[in-house]
Design a protein that fits this description.
Elements (H helix, E strand, L loop, with lengths): L14 H7 L1 H20 L3 H9 L3 H6 L7 H15 L2 H20 L5 H14 L1 H16 L5 H29 L2 H14 L27 H18 L1 H16 L4 H29 L1 H21 L3 H29 L4 H29 L7 H19 L5 H4 L9
Helix pairs in contact: 1-2, 1-9, 2-8, 2-9, 2-10, 5-7, 5-16, 6-7, 6-8, 6-10, 8-16, 9-10, 9-13, 9-15, 11-15, 11-16, 11-17, 12-16, 13-14, 13-15, 14-15, 14-17, 15-16
Length: 419
């Protein structure tokens, strides 16, 4: 099956109805909302916890984010196990319990080294929970073909984004009203609560062709090459996010001296645009193909970073954030679908590689931003993610042209609405 191919069927049930009708789709939607809610509540506060509660220096607190570099390796191991056994939801539950134990351990840490060790080892496994859920979702969708299936993935992914929208606000409020340790305990509870919406549900097993004898072996580099190329290009797009979140607030507050309300609105407009554009991204992809739309999405990122680097006005920054919403409206809705279709014989491995690549992107972006701001200064540091994004545009365009299935034509007849 090609990148944009869909299996046609006479049934034309909307994606929203499909999601609500299926215990798996419905449960995955709620579970990923809880996942996004819990993790995003803790992410902005963890550095403050290390500094204020455990006495870390600012430099040491910044290095904490490098512990996520173990996630791609551990996620790959979990994905390979899942592809060999087909136990998607079983491994999802194990990873969720590991996440609960990890965040609880961090909450009650008494020594500075403890959160670093827990994050690198325990939370590295816990991060694979999301990829296992998407692999289970893939199996369920393949067992019940429908033109609205890509829309189901978009709805589930929107729930994860919704959690990320609410989580930082909820985490800040809880930490202010109680303590950072209490907030981390709440994150642990949200992580464990992921298993509740799915109960003891068992999804359809992977299809026979996905469990064939060659599939029992790890896919070779040749088979994985398209996925690795796509993931590498995604890393180039994503690497701008840590640069933006690190330096855009500083630029707005210290150099432009924008009012706090304006700065908050600029930061907050992106996830709102992202959620609104996800359903539209699925509809447009049915007409022009997923890879072609991702070329456009990556180009939005280039334009956004040029706005940050050159405009010097609140209007320009708003425009940049709206364009960034377009980037992630496309990649968040379609990225996991493309990744799974690029390695259809090992969808859990594909999911783990793609979803855990954000850790590598964050490390690259953090290092590039640190060096860039020292040499280029603000706001010219945003020229770095613009250049990375331009490289991604070129690479995605080449990959789209080399797709032998011509996905846009294959999926042109799929016009199922999302609602």
């Amino acid at each position: 099956m090609g990148i944009g191919d869909t299996i046609e069927t006479p049934a034309r049930t909307s994606a929203l109805r499909l999601t609500l009708a299926s215990p798996l789709y419905r449960g995955a939607t709620v579970a990923l909302f809880l996942s996004g809610l819990g993790f995003s509540a803790a992410a902005p506060q963890i550095a403050s916890f290390l500094v204020n509660d455990l006495g870390a220096s600012l430099t040491a607190a910044g290095l904490f984010y490098l512990t996520s570099l173990t996630a791609p390796i551990l996620g790959y191991l979990v994905g390979r196990r899942s592809d060999r056994t087909g136990a998607r939801l079983g491994l999802f539950r194990v990873c969720a319990v590991a996440g609960f134990a990890g965040w609880l351990g961090i909450a009650f840490s008494t020594q500075l080294w403890m959160p670093y060790a827990i994050s690198a080892i325990v939370l590295g496994f816990a991060g694979a929970a999301t990829s296992q859920l998407f692999a289970a979702l893939h199996d369920g969708l393949k067992a019940s073909p429908n033109p609205g299936n890509d829309g189901v993935v978009a709805i589930v992914r929107m729930a994860l984004t919704g959690g990320w929208v609410i989580g930082p606000v909820a985490g800040s409020f809880l930490a202010a009203q109680s303590s950072l340790r209490t907030m981390l305990v709440a994150t642990a509870i949200c992580t464990l609560a992921q298993v509740v919406p799915l109960g003891l549900l068992r999804p359809p097993p992977p299809s026979t062709d996905e469990r064939s004898e060659p599939h029992l072996r790890a896919p070779g580099l040749r088979a994985m090459a398209p996925l690795l190329a796509f993931t590498g290009l995604y890393v180039l797009v994503y690497a701008g996010e840590p640069i933006k979140y690190a330096y855009l607030p500083i630029y707005m507050n210290e150099q432009l001296q924008l009012p706090a309300g304006t700065s908050g609105a600029i930061i907050g407009i992106q996830p709102l645009v992202e959620i609104l554009l996800m359903p539209l991204a699925v509809l447009v992809a049915r007409r022009i193909g997923m890879m072609r739309l991702m070329v456009v999405g990556a180009a939005f990122g280039v334009a956004a970073n040029l706005c940050f680097a050159t405009t010097g006005t609140a209007v320009g920054l708003f425009a940049g954030q709206i364009l960034m919403g377009g980037v992630w409206g496309v990649f968040a809705a379609l990225g996991i679908i493309v990744a799974q279709r690029l390695l259809p014989s090992a969808v859990a491995t594909a999911s783990a590689i793609f979803l855990s690549s954000t850790a590598l992107a964050s490390a690259i972006g953090g290092a590039g931003g640190g060096l860039g701001v020292a040499t280029l200064g603000l706001p010219r540091v945003f020229l770095i993610p613009a250049a990375l994004g331009l490289s991604a545009v070129i690479g995605l365009a080449v990959q789209a042209r080399s797709d032998p299935t011509r996905s846009a034509q294959a999926s042109h007849s799929d016009r199922t609405p999302l609602t």
